[in-house]
Design brief:
- The structure is a single chain.
- This protein is of the alpha/beta class.
- It has a single domain (5-266), classed as Alpha/Beta hydrolase fold, catalytic domain (Rossmann fold).
- The chain is built from eleven helices and eight strands.
- Helix 3 links the parallel strand 5 and strand 6.
- Helix 2 (75-89) crosses helix 3.
Length: 267
Amino acid sequence: MHKPRKKVIPVLGGALEITVNIAGTGKPLLYLHSAGGYYWDDFLDGLADHYKVYAPHFPGTAPGRPNEIDLVGNLWDVVTAYDDLLDGLGLKKVRLIGHSFGGLLAAELAAHHPKAIDKLVLISPIGLWRDDAPYTVANWCALDGNELMDVLFYDKQHPRVVRRMTPPSVGKDAAELWQVHLMWTLGCTAKVIWPIPDKGLRKRIHRVTAPSLVVWGENDKLIPTVYAQEFGKALNNAEVMMLPQCGHEPPLEQCEILTAKVREFLG
């Protein structure tokens, strides 16, 4: 198991700092986490065996730095901040992976700065819209714990799911603080996409030039699976992979298949 080190990078002209978790060796890979926040899981650990993985905390979600979300006003602030992050890390060309909310950010970053993205992987991304397949940020922000488990996972008893979603039991108020941090993280990410995550990506996605892989769980109950084909059609050069017996969290429920396919695609 890799133990990521942290590095703090100033962005937006020094007005904001982004905390980045870094592990592994090899060509650079930037990973943008879902609305649930940063979590070093088996998927990232496997990627770090072959790449140097950079996994930033979304502003406001890094431990001890909640007020950083005040420095982000909208989605474009975030995209610009992540563009600055590439410069701050010295990354001229990078493989980019985004999951769910992070998939939206990854697609926007790839459209904003296409020459910087070597290959793009979008795992259950949000950001496109069809009137016959609506969803809103409330689909995941307005749920209690049990409801959230029901919409996120196909197999709630999968060992990786249990490990990820079980609050810590050691330390004073540890479980309560874990729950507060999860709710805060959902709120921070929701700030820039509330109430509907369609911020015009369809108008810009044609600018993405990187070969792309779109991955979706066949049993995703959070975001309609029709969007797998929507992203596949909207991107210039994309492959779509559907994962059986998998909900909205392929890195947890189908880690082995996902890792093998991503490594094959990234080369």
